[in-house]
Amino acid sequence: MIHGVRGVVVRFDGVLIDSCHAAYAAWQHEFVREGLHLPIDYWGDLFDRHPGPGCDEQLLRLLRQRVADPDQIRDDHLDRVHRRRRRIESALRLRPGVVAWLREASDRGVRMFTVSDQAAGSLTRELDRLGVGRFFERVLSFGAGGAEEFYRDAPRQADIDRSELVAMEDTGHGVRAARAAGLRCIASPQRASVHALPSAEPGTVIAEPPWMSLSDALGALAGSRRAVPRPAAGTDTGARVSASLGALALGDALGKMVNKRSLHQLEPDTVNALSLLETGGEPPADCVFTGCVTDDTVLLLALVDSVVDDGRVSRDAYERVLRSLNPRGGRQIYQLKSDASDLFVALDGNTNGCVPRCAAVAYTTPSTNLGDLCYDALKVATLTHGGHEALFTALLFAVIAAAAVDGEPVQSVRERLPGLYRPLTRLAGGGADVADLVQGSLDRLDRIDSPHVYLDVLEGAVGMAMAARSSVVSAICLGLSGFSFPVTLAALMRRQAHWDLDSTAAVYAGLAGAFQPSEVPALWVGRIERHSGRDFGKLAASLVEMRRAPVVPA
Question: Measured between alpha carbons, how far is 31 from 65 in angstroms, rounded to an integer?
């Protein structure tokens, strides 16, 4: 079985061999004899409207209309056309890629049937000539009732439930017949029908054997690219966005408080603050934990404001903001500020600075809109960073954050990641080695049940330095760990070396807040809101409204 499909009914004429082109070539020969041209798309449209003998009658009528002496076009022209067609068909080979599909079906236990207007004995001989008879369980016939009637009865003949049986057709009328009978259909176009097959219709996918595997075609038919995930009960999207935004700012603020100090350099005030966080206590006095954030949150909130004001992710609007605001540090921002060109694209930068701001893209774009999500993330990341490692991690963070906001469970996201690495590295212009670091670190997680142990592993393996391949890899893996948020965040602040913990914690907390919104401590986030004069709940409401009904500029 492949994607819930147990059986496939394949039309012999057109899907296995290009018999339609044989019919067209036979008629084209007659038109050329008379100095006339018969376009293949015209023939294809005519065949779609008048399948079978009706097409021949229409073409004979057309030929008589176009020649100087209609009487010279006699009925025996049809016999000549049919003889020529049979000669051409007798030399046809299988269409490219068909054998690979048949072998894949055999290997995966999908039962295969073929159907034709031909008599069963003639069709069996043709299959043997082509060397594929062994792949088909039964040879079926359309019969006098035509394709639609056959497809209505096909589940009974195949002894397969209608929902688990798929038709494979090559023409518009064949697809319509299968769909009218309630069967899903793979449309495999041949030269005469490629322009006329219906696109984007429910229950139908267009796939050509040389360019797609059978599994991919059936997967597309099943909608296996993933449905919109159902949010967890009791937690709406707005709550996840608000929690992610607040948690990201909290991680940033705590990292600023620790300020690249190692565990052994932390004084009692900071140690106590982390203990309060870990045990669910209230934040310490303002003079210990001020709620002040760094450039990670400043640049994120600047993008959030820009997106809310414009109703979309506008690179130009965000660039104007970045050129004017106080970024609170960051060499990459000042490279942008000092550039006077009409279009600025960062030439370098493999640090983590472009990653946290991509949360704003994830807040406004569902994870099922991966194309928009990734290109919007690139729009804002390339203003300051041009290194492929930074861009890859920014894309990966945005994709994971959007899935978390959608309510997809963390385990489901982890299982899908390997399939995303290759397209994301193509978009970023590289980053395969970073993808290997991420996956290798996630693979270790399966054998670890403590955030403290996992943090030690990450610290030793990839570290938490400013480089995206270090801090962002650790942060993403932590975000996908599912460990208790307060415990993990506090443990992250207690490291053995002098790391860039504000950015690491911001990226981690942005993910963990979306995956585990109920674990984000409201009083700690409230301290940051008061210090910054921002209301994360109101910002989240505006962002989620855009997520539901994106504004398309005129």
Answer: 12
